[in-house]
Amino acid sequence: MISFQQILFLITILVAGYFFFRRVLQIRKNILMGQDEDRTDQPTKRWKSMLLVAFGQKKMFKKPIPAFLHLLIYIGFIVINIEGIEFFLDGIFGKHRMIARLLQRLDLTIFYSITLNIFEFLALAVILSCVFFLIRRNVYKIKRFDGVEMSRWPKLDANLILIFEIILMFAIMTMNATDQILQERNVVGFPNTGLMIISEIFASPFYRPFNTELVLAIERIAWWAHIIGIFSFAIYVTYSKHLHTFMAFPNTYYSNLEPFGKIKNMPEVTREVNMMLGIAQVESPTNSETVRSLGAKDIKDLSWKNLMDAYTCTECGRCTAQCPANQTGKLLSPRKIMMDTRDRMEELGDLLAKSGKEATDGKSLLGDYISKEEIFACTSCNACVEACPVTIDPLSIILQMRRYMSMEESSAPQEWNAMFSNIETSFSPWKFPPSERFKWADEFTKEN
Amino acid sequence: MAELAQKGIEPELLLWIGCAGSYDERYKKVTRAFVRLLNLAKVSFAVLGEEEACTGDPARRAGNEFLFQMQATANIQVLNGYKVKKIVTACPHCFNTIKNEYPDLGGKYEVVHHSEFLQQLIQEGRLTMEEETEFKDTKITYHDSCYLGRSNHIYDAPRQLIKFLQADLVEMERNKENGFCCGAGGAQMFKESEKGTKDINIERTEEALETHATIIASACPFCMTMLSDGIKNKDRDEDVKVLDLAELIAKSKNL
Fold first, then answer.
1. Cα-flanking dihedrals φ and ψ of residue A288, to 5°?
2. A405 to chain B: which residues are within 8 Å by CB?
3. Domain ranges of chain A
4. Chain A nearest-CA residue for B152
5. Are residues A277 and B67, on separate chains, in Cβ contact within 8 Å?
């Protein structure tokens, strides 16, 4: 006989699954709006980068205290979710704590008890870390959590995630506390879980005065709150900066393995330069290549990796805090570059989904979201790239936009145009005649 | 180089001077100091002289890929024409471009920055340091060039050179991976900065002055200009000097 709760559980899963996968496909589609770029070479190095940077959180540890608390939340997130297996089984089969029941039958309750106590310990650690982070964000007002791009939604998002996590952990504690009370009262259907220490200490005293019916109801509410919480959190995450929990893995796998100083070559320019210099034969563009503009103005001009970077950004602001332009009051903020890219990608993705592949709205990332002034202020020092805990590369986007401005719009600052013409005419960025290039050695000639 | 090629000589090394080393009055001194050291160490090297041209670094970083590739391709033709195998340069921007960006365009060479090269000469005993240099116990701070440091992970060679001088190396708060830019990279050298609350070189100069070092060692022509301007702006150019690593080594040997 299928119970009402089982039906409800199935419906919840189907509905949540639908929204979740629809969103995942949309994110995938949005990322694939970007240009091709091969990031599949050297798989060993890539796995290593993923293991160290995403799984091992190596770059987080530049700031040890937040890194440690972040690690607790992260381990809590992964380990506590193992309990999801039992939730899932219980939900489907309409039973209660199926694994506990099985272990009780095998006389192995001790293992269940140890595992649940680990979960509870982590849940407490998660609650404390989240509270610390909330205080840090809202009371201490760390400078890097501020900035023009940190408008209402990003700030709210950051707080919502922390609150959400606290609620989820409270649900677990409540569930376990009431469960223990029901076991004490020998209510049918509540197998022995062994003592769950933290909920016994902190939560049980609160529920013990209530009558059994009320405790039963609270247990059910907490169970459902946790289940619905997990599902809605999973969907929420895909719309939030919290997406980094998943994206950090592919993003570090596909990270740039070249030296930071190397700027990606433009083969289409190489072909043309070789033709101009008479090194290569003049060839007509092949049909497979559509002629596209040089550099980047909007989402589709960037590479898919730039777009994956944008979805991976968790808005921590370590890049911006290291940016020399930003730290001396210029408009440029690498975090804003990433957030603008993501917001514009979402906007364009929605438009294309609604109005067809070729639809345009007359807007572009460069101009409507990111200003030229921001792009020109960059010193290409790679401090932002180095600072990012999940190997995001804001500089790559900045440089592609400079290419667009210099080559498509000819809208580089005047001094740069002067520098360009110096290089063209005297082969030096300064206006000196090439015949004076060897003058530095005159002193040696004199000496000899 | 042309003269040597006529005689059929292939020198072990090409010294790439760079535009700053060729034209900038201040950096010409660095070029000469480095050349004196190479001569002292009896390194056989050549220069391209008037055949050298801008690597294209500022053009590429300002977004003018065409101009960059024109420069790069022309330079590679010259370098390959002389069968150059190894290049040393005192400019981190030239170093980065030739080392990392020329290979895609057919220019594959072993490229060494002068800080690494000097370190090697000293370690191999081709250059010997004095028992006691004039910089013994002098407080020297080293400013990491972004194009050496974060871009190419060269952090140790420059510091090792300062240790060879027996100087007291004092670090700025932001150093190595966390080093703070001088403000000139990414073609900023060739334009005014955007509106802000402070100039980047002033911020960095203040940080350097906080170390109470009397010498700020640099390893890049742009950093040198920015920091020299910074200490002038702070009216400290009398008691604090910005010197290149090659100049420090050369001075310690009275060259």
1. -65, -25
2. 63
3. 4-31+63-253, 287-434
4. A259
5. no
